[in-house]
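FORM 12-B: Structure-to-Sequence Request
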């Protein structure tokens, strides 16, 4: 009996040793030559040292003789900690059968996703796969469906993060697309539904994998990627940073972190941030870094729809989700991409109990046939729907322009915002002063001897009378007109006031957001 136990221990030791070697030294070397880390190296870098607990190390596929040679079936799964907080993780191993997905591979991922929902821990997927395992036929497609179903059911329950650290093509792209945050690595990752060869066959167009679905394409044009980093190491470091802003699940709030930044700190420079010329731009990020704890801001989709800024920061130690128009890009106008970007961010924050701060300087929605034909009505309605639906604490500060429907959509008092502030420089009106004057005084201007002078006088008259925050404040649409330098302390005090907010929407299966 003792002999049998010793034999089993020796067998276990040998099997584990082989499993830890992945696809072998030669394939690991190939992975490194491509500038990529191995699946295990990625896990070691991402998680706190020594915290990883692995599941299904010895599980193997059954579809082919070659699959039986490798324990783990091309994916490593388990749980560990980031900053002492539990997370669930899977990391595809490209050195084993190209990280291809079959039933055993999928079963391991499905199991760890189920654990994540059960214990209330974020799920992080490190994707590096050649796609469906062709040898397993339709079983591999069924395997994808198992993962997709779990992505949907975990949505809004635990944060889901995808890192694309190699190829991700075909059906594989839909799992990352349904997660909350997608990271991509420059030059070594790509995503597309149909690859360059299929594109060439169907459209006769020559295009590289990088041009079709590389990190820059998805971060700047499609909006699929939320964060892009130059290499695996920096990507994993940024994931750790993101996790520190988030709660573990929808029943918790994000952890408090005291950066020892005084709550009552003021910034006199903010009193001069807004240019005297209403047509002159400025950088909204000056205000953002001024008011946030330690000037720390994690921007979301920084390269996509840059006319609106979204991201995470802290105020008084508390995580907040921040949405701000960017006057330095397209005057901060709302267009199709900006509306969609902000709407998705607002819904994530609301799902995970993260208060929303909105900094407004918006001249309106982008005009023109391209935007109208692209569905600006439908996409703008997404942002409107997201704000109205959100029940977390919501605070808005109007800095300068807040015109027309864009004023209403950008978290106004009329769509259930809790606290609305304005700077003295705020201009709240149906139209900008010049556009309003052109309409109101059209006949007088047409008949005037010097129409340009009359238009200028009427524009200034309208600006003094209507384009200021005081009329809105008199009607109760603005809770207070504040001194710019005091913005940080007023926001923190409002968050403290709203900490016990309890607002619920009418009971329904789910809303029907205008997708």
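FORM 12-B RESPONSE
SEQUENCE OUT:
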């Amino acid at each position: 009996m003792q002999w049998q136990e010793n034999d089993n221990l020796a067998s276990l030791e040998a099997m584990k040793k082989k499993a830890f070697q992945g696809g072998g030294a030669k394939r690991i070397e190939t992975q490194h030559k491509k500038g990529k880390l191995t699946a295990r190296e990625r896990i070691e870098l991402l998680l706190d040292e020594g915290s990883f607990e692995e599941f299904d190390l010895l599980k193997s596929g059954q579809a082919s003789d070659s699959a039986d040679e490798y324990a783990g079936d091309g994916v490593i799964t388990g749980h560990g900690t980031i900053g002492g907080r539990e997370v669930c993780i899977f990391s595809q191993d490209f050195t084993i059968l190209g990280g291809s997905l079959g039933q055993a591979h999928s079963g391991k991922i499905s199991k760890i996703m189920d654990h994540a929902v059960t214990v209330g821990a974020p799920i992080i997927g490190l994707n590096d796969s050649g796609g469906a395992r062709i040898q397993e036929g339709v079983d591999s497609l069924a395997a994808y469906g198992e993962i997709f179903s779990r992505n949907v059911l975990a949505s809004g329950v635990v944060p889901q993060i995808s890192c694309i650290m190699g190829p991700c093509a075909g059906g594989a792209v839909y799992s990352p697309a349904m997660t909350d945050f997608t990271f991509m690595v420059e030059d070594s990752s790509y995503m597309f539904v149909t690859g360059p060869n299929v594109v060439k066959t169907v459209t006769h167009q020559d295009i590289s994998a990088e041009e079709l679905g590389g990190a820059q394409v998805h971060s700047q044009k499609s909006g699929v990627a939320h964060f892009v980093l130059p290499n695996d190491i920096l990507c994993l470091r940024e994931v750790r940073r993101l996790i520190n802003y988030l709660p573990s699940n929808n029943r918790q709030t994000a952890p408090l972190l005291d950066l020892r930044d005084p709550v009552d700190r003021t910034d006199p420079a903010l009193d001069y941030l807004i240019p005297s010329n209403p047509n002159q731009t400025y950088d909204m990020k000056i205000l953002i870094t001024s008011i946030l704890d330690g000037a720390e801001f994690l921007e979301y989709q920084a390269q996509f729809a840059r006319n609106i800024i979204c991201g995470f920061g802290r105020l008084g130690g508390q995580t907040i989700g921040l949405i701000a128009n960017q006057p330095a890009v397209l005057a901060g106008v709302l267009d199709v991409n900006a509306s969609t970007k902000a709407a998705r961010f607002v819904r994530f924050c609301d799902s995970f109990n993260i208060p929303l701060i909105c900094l407004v300087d918006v001249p309106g929605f982008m005009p023109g046939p391209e935007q109208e034909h692209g569905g600006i009505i439908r996409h703008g309605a997404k942002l409107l729907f997201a704000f109205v639906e959100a029940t977390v604490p919501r605070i808005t500060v109007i800095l300068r322009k807040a015109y027309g429907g864009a004023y209403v959509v950008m978290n106004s008092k009329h769509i259930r915002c809790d606290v609305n502030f304005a700077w003295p420089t705020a201009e709240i009106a149906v139209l900008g002063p010049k556009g309003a004057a052109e309409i109101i005084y059209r006949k007088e201007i047409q008949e005037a001897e010097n129409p340009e002078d009359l238009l200028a006088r009427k524009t200034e008259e309208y600006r003094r009378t209507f384009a200021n925050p005081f009329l809105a404040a008199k009607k109760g649409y603005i809770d207070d007109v504040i001194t710019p330098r005091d913005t940080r302390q007023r926001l923190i005090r409002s968050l403290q006031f709203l900490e016990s907010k309890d607002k619920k929407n009418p009971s329904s299966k789910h809303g029907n957001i205008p997708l």
